[in-house]
């Protein structure tokens, strides 16, 4: 799939890090480092804008290594980039650790996955077909 991209950063375009990776690494595009204190969040710019085809979305996801080693997550994970959005991609990082973390220019701060999606039409009804689970909510399928 070909996706038009505008790169206003000084970094190379996002790349897959392995042959079978689903996500392309997004890099911070910063004039100066950004320090995230414990429980602080910041929108980290990437300098990238894309034109995602209709029927697809971009999903901005966290990087597992940053989560494991530094407690960094995305506030809205995954963040959705709609097919009609043409602005800069940002990564909304939050520091869930108890120590500050410095985000530097060029650092891989998230990943982008392009995924197909469906557009639905609601079918109003008074009842739904029964299932084994029924209306059981969180934890209703048992422990383990």
UniProtKB/TrEMBL annotation:
It comes from the Bacteria. GO terms for biological process: dUMP biosynthetic process; dUTP catabolic process. Its cofactor is Mg(2+). Substrate binds at residues 63-65, 76, 80-82. Keywords: Hydrolase, Magnesium, Metal-binding, Nucleotide metabolism. It catalyses: dUTP + H2O = dUMP + diphosphate + H(+). The keyword Hydrolase applies. Pathway: Pyrimidine metabolism; dUMP biosynthesis; dUMP from dCTP (dUTP route): step 2/2. Residues 12-142 form the dUTPase-like domain. Gene3D superfamilies: 2.70.40.10. GO terms for molecular function: dUTP diphosphatase activity; magnesium ion binding. This enzyme is involved in nucleotide metabolism: it produces dUMP, the immediate precursor of thymidine nucleotides and it decreases the intracellular concentration of dUTP so that uracil cannot be incorporated into DNA. Belongs to the dUTPase family. This is Deoxyuridine 5'-triphosphate nucleotidohydrolase. It comes from Hymenobacter nivis.
């Amino acid at each position: 799939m070909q996706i038009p991209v505008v790169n206003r950063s000084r970094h190379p375009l996002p790349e897959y890090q392995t042959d079978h990776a689903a996500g392309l690494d997004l890099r911070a595009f910063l004039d100066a480092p950004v320090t995230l204190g414990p429980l602080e969040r910041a929108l980290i710019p990437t300098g990238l804008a894309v034109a995602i085809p209709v029927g697809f979305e971009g999903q901005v996801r966290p990087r597992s290594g940053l989560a494991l080693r530094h407690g960094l997550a995305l506030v809205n994970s995954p963040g959705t980039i709609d097919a009609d959005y043409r602005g800069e991609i940002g990564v909304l990082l939050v520091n869930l650790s108890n120590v500050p973390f410095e985000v530097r220019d060029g650092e891989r701060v998230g990943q982008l996955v392009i995924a197909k999606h469906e557009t639905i039409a609601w079918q109003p009804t008074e009842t739904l077909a029964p299932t084994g689970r029924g209306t059981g909510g969180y934890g209703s399928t048992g422990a383990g």
